[in-house]
Design goal:
The chain has 484 residues and is an alpha+beta fold. It has 14 helices and 19 strands. The strands form 7 sheets. A 5-stranded antiparallel beta sheet has the order 8-7-19-18-17, with helices on both faces. The protein has a 3-stranded antiparallel beta sheet with strand order 2-1-3, with no helix packed on it. The chain starts with a strand and ends in a 6-residue tail after the last helix.
Length: 484
């Protein structure tokens, strides 16, 4: 409903308009009168309003109505951060609604008036015109059923851990397609959101220090450059390693020597610091870039962050020791899963995809899997997958064991920076877990990231049971045969 003030001339017409707006549209009289005085040509009264009884009655002079289209999300909150939502004018404001606005837009209502060459209005009336545009159908890589499963378990995880936020991403390793991307808290696109923070897609635009999930990539770089073999032993300082007046510690056990594989199995920070020392700044930086950190992945969603990766000339003395166990640089969840998925794809890094095709009376455009680069050799990938399997069998992710199935994983626990002190907090953590399955023929990767869980904070303990439930449901849904 809207108003043309210039059409309301007499006092009787004004009273009729005021009474209608107040009684039928429930708009306070004073509010209407203020707008009537302020706006001379046009103003909206109420948008996206539907009342069958009012819609059929005659309107007072100066008050008019027009049909508007409203986006409806039949699945409510499902995949809300992927889909995004539209505003009053049907214009996408976040998610796919925003990034693919030009594809999804259908008929548009435009407001016109006639003017002469000097810009003077030729008549007092302005009018609406419907412009018929050609909307197209957009198909996503998201599997609605897997998305639903991920969101159900993610909400349970979020509430049980009393976390600030949580994210789960599931990717098809071979194609790079994202089959689920879930964040919690989420929102319902059918309701205009007052809390803008809920619109933020943490899976692609939240930057965090990755912690130990990154160790498997750095270990792969060391293997790739023949600095170590998988069974080479590294002295781990019995749990306490002093570097430039800074003490690096291992979490629980104090190891004297560990092989490179055992460093991954037991998630030794000291072992990784020794590897970083041997690799050196330039080699570390080269591989971190090769893994995609510090750059967008190219996923077709708005607001993707590049993360934080300084050039080696800006590193301090500790950087080459702490970066290998996930401190001192920032990543996004989509960057992390894309890089580690390459391990299950014989070392080939695939561009992550969220759009499958655009169709209108047939396929107009189809997104093909896109290989970006080879980050590891097939031999190194096999060694890393075996190490990740042992993380599940005897290491920090034993909770992921499922009878008959080979699953690989790497846990992560990263201290958050306390903004008040600028130092690492001893109370606030990012807990994460990355999984690949089934290892005999890798098909899927899954990443869980939990921001500031209360109580238990180790990645395997926080995320393990949730990931196990999701993997079991995926095994059933995709009918994945046993590998053992």
């Amino acid at each position: 409903y809207f108003c043309f003030p210039q059409k309301i001339i007499s006092q009787e017409e004004k009273r009729n308009a005021v009474n209608f707006v107040n009684q039928k549209l429930k708009i306070p009289k004073d509010d209407f009168l203020k707008k009537l005085k302020k706006y001379k040509k046009f103003f909206w009264l109420i948008r996206l309003f539907c009342d069958g009884k009012i819609d059929k009655i005659d309107l007072p002079k100066g008050i008019e109505r027009i049909k508007e289209e409203k986006r409806f999300y039949p699945n409510g909150k499902l995949a809300s951060h992927v889909l995004g939502y539209t505003g009053f004018d049907g214009i996408g404001l976040s998610g796919i609604e925003y990034s693919m606005e030009y594809v999804l837009r259908g008929s548009a209502i435009k407001f016109y008036n006639e003017k002469d060459a000097k810009g003077r209005q030729l008549n007092s009336e302005e009018f609406f015109k419907v412009e018929n545009l050609e909307p197209q159908n957009l198909y996503l890589t998201i599997d609605k059923n897997i998305q639903f499963i991920a969101e159900e378990y993610l909400e349970e995880l979020y509430k049980n851990t009393k976390a600030e936020a949580a994210t789960i991403i599931i990717q098809n390793i071979k194609t790079g397609e994202i089959i689920a991307l879930a964040n919690f808290p989420n929102f319902d696109g059918n309701e205009l959101q007052k809390n803008i923070k809920l619109l933020k897609n943490d899976g692609i635009n939240k930057v965090y220090e990755p912690g130990s999930t990154i160790k498997v990539l750095i270990a792969g770089a060391a293997l790739e450059d023949n600095l170590y073999k998988i069974d080479d032993k590294i002295y781990c300082e019995k749990g306490r390693f002093k570097v430039y007046n800074h003490i690096i510690r291992d979490h629980d056990k104090k190891f004297k020597e560990l092989t490179l594989e055992e460093i991954l199995i037991y998630s030794s920070n000291i072992g990784m610091a020794k590897i970083g020392e041997k690799m050196g700044k330039n080699r570390l930086y080269y591989y971190l870039q090769k893994f995609g950190f510090g750059n967008n992945t190219g996923i077709d969603l708005p607001g993707e962050e590049k993360g934080l990766l300084k050039h080696p000339k800006n590193w301090d003395k500790l950087s080459e020791y702490i970066l290998p166990f996930g401190q001192g640089f920032g990543v996004t969840a989509i960057q992390t899963i894309a890089a580690i998925s390459a391990i299950g794809n014989k070392g080939i890094f695939m561009e992550p995809k969220i759009i499958k095709s655009i169709q209108k009376d047939g396929i107009i455009y189809e997104q093909k899997p896109r290989e970006i680069r080879q980050i590891f050799s097939e031999k190194v990938c096999k060694e890393l997958l075996n190490a990740m399997e042992n993380v599940v069998m005897i290491g920090t992710a034993k909770v992921l064991q499922i009878e008959g199935y080979r699953i690989g994983a790497k846990t992560g626990t990263a201290q958050k920076i306390d903004r008040s002190t600028g130092k690492y907090s001893k109370e606030s953590y990012i807990s994460s877990l990355i999984g690949i399955f089934p290892l005999n023929e890798p098909q899927f990767s899954i990443l869980a990231v939990v921001d500031s869980p209360k109580g238990v904070y180790y990645g395997g303990e926080v995320c393990g049971e949730t990931m196990r439930k999701i993997i079991k449901d995926m095994i059933y849904y995709y009918k994945i045969p046993k590998s053992l």
